[in-house]
Amino acid sequence: xxxxxxxxxxxxxxxxxVQDFHCGDEPFEKEVxxxxxxxxxxxxxxxxxxxxxxxxxxxxxxxxxxxxVVGFGALAKTDWRWPGKNNDPKLPLSIIIWxxxxxxxxxxxxxxxxxxxxxxILDDLVAEASEDAxxxxxxxxxxxxDNKRAIKFYKDAGFSDELEQRVEKTGxxxxxxxxxQNALEAAIAAVNNRRGL
Length: 197
Prior knowledge:
By secondary structure, the protein is of the alpha+beta class. It has helices spanning 27-37, 47-51, 117-130, 148-156, 181-194; strands spanning 6-9, 59-65, 68-81, 90-101, 138-144, 172-178. Helices cover 27% and strands 26% of the residues. The termini are far apart.
C-alpha cells in the first residue's frame, strides 16, 4: 500500500518550514521553490502574496509525509484566449500556478507510477479544480519549454499542449486538460453569442 500524503493549507505560519524547499537546480526549478519561499511583501510575487491577491486569490497547499514537506501545489482562476490567437475570446479557467516536489522525493515512493507523490499532488489539484468545472471547465498550466521531464509528466497525466502556443519571453508555454467538455462548449457558445458570431 502506497504512502499517502496529507494536505495542509499554506499560511504565513508555514513559511519557516519551507525555507529549505528544493525541487531542482535548473533556473526553471529554482523559480518554483523561490515562489513558495518568498516573503509576504507586495513587492514580491510569492505564495503568500498570491493567496492575498485582491482580485483573484490563489489557494496553496503543502503536501506532507508526517511533518516533512514533500511538495506543494497552487491553484487560481484566470482567463485564457481560446484557442490562443490574439483575437480569440477569453474563457474562464482554473490554473495550476506552480507545483513542486522536493528533489529527495522524486520518483518516490517505489512501486507503481500512479502511487508516486508527484501523481498524488497533481491528482489532488485536478480534483480541486474539478469542483469548479461548471464555471471553469478547463485546467491550465504553464511549463518551461526546457523542462522535458515535467512536460512528459503532464502529458502522461492527460494534459495537452495543442493550444495555439505563444512562448512568452520567460520560455513557458501552455498545457491544459478539459474538466467538463459540455461546460466548455457552453462557455464557447456564450462568448460567441456575445460577440455576435
